[in-house]
Amino acid sequence: MLIKQLGLIGCGLLGGSFALALKQANCVSRVVGYSRSASSAEKAKALGVIDEAVDSALLAATGSDVVLLAVPVAATASVLASILDAIGPDTLVMDVGSTKGSVVASAQMALGNKIAAFVPAHPIAGREVSGVEHAQATLFDGCNVIITPIKETGAKQFEKAQALWLLIGAAIHHMSPEHHDAIFAASSHTPHLLAFAYINSLANQRLLDQFLAFAGSGFRDTTRVAASDPTMWRDIFLSNKDDVRKQIHLLQQQLNTMDEVIANDDGPKLEQLLTQAQRIRAAWNIS
Ligand code: NAP
């Protein structure tokens, strides 16, 4: 067995899927789980995601050779500080948070001279639903996982983290935490923010009920992610503030330009803008 005991902190969609994937790959002997609500850990146990539910993050980490944090990114510092005593020289501690700069800063602060244990990771897999009841053993199969090591990251922890993601079917990419956050502000955080903002722009309009009653596939496709968990996205927007705000400003410029060309009945310019977007989107392909 590659892992004797996995300590899972945060028994939700991502954490539950990671535990199920390792179990399916037959590379973990035992999974001990802790979640903020005892009911989530109990549900994880009932679903066979974890083998034992415990009452604290420290208990989940104690005796675990691998610890996975699968909690909202703002909880990273407090959770890591609470498990410090359980981290030995060979322990691998990994996260799955959607931002990396603030997570790495939290880990440096909380772990101090045990920072070598920590491998920051972000699997590009997920859904707009949350909770362990939606966990899937195949969630990471074929997905990209971004690992953002820092100079203090331990070599054996780094190797082990990579081996685990490969075993559960992920393709690994490396980049700095800063580069990661700039990329994902543009390609993930802003589309989510836009979906939330668009729905809110409809929210107080008198005809909202009719907008929704007659909305079709365009509405469905562009707003799917507005059904995502608000706590998770609050943390992501706030923890990647500078990069997200940079993208918001670029988007505002585009909206202003569109507004101006429409106001001026400038058909050629409008068509040029739409054609540029259409070409880029049509060339993009992901299953
Ligand atoms: P989720 O389904 O809501 O699971 C998060 C779990 O963590 C919940 O069970 C939650 O609360 C628990 N939790 C919250 N604070 C905690 C704390 N202080 N200590 C222990 N447990 C705590 O969310 P998720 O989608 O799995 O997201 C987890 C992480 O994955 C986030 O950092 C997110 O950025 C990242 N991520 C998500 C996606 C996605 O599409 N969903 C994709 C990539 C990365 P309860 O125990 O009360 O239920």
Summary, kept brief:
52% of the residues lie in helices and 13% in strands.
Explain what you see.
α6 (155-167) links the parallel β8 (144-147) and β9 (171-174). The two termini are 32 Å apart. The chain is built from twelve helices and nine strands. It is elongated. The strands form two sheets. Strands 3-2-1-4-5-6 form a six-stranded parallel β-sheet, with helices on both faces. Strands 7-8-9 form a three-stranded mixed β-sheet, with helices on one face. The chain has 287 residues and is α/β, with parallel strands linked by helices. Bound molecules: NADP nicotinamide-adenine-dinucleotide phosphate. The site of NADP nicotinamide-adenine-dinucleotide phosphate has 31 residues, from α1, β7 and α10.
Q: Main attributes?
A:
287 residues; alpha/beta; six-stranded parallel sheet; three-stranded mixed sheet; 9 strands; 52% helix; 13% strand; elongated; binds NADP nicotinamide-adenine-dinucleotide phosphate
- Report strand %: 5-15%
Shape: elongated
Q: Which structural class do you get from the secondary structure elements? A: alpha/beta
Mean pLDDT: 97
Please state how the strands of the largest beta sheet are arranged side by side.
Answer: 3-2-1-4-5-6
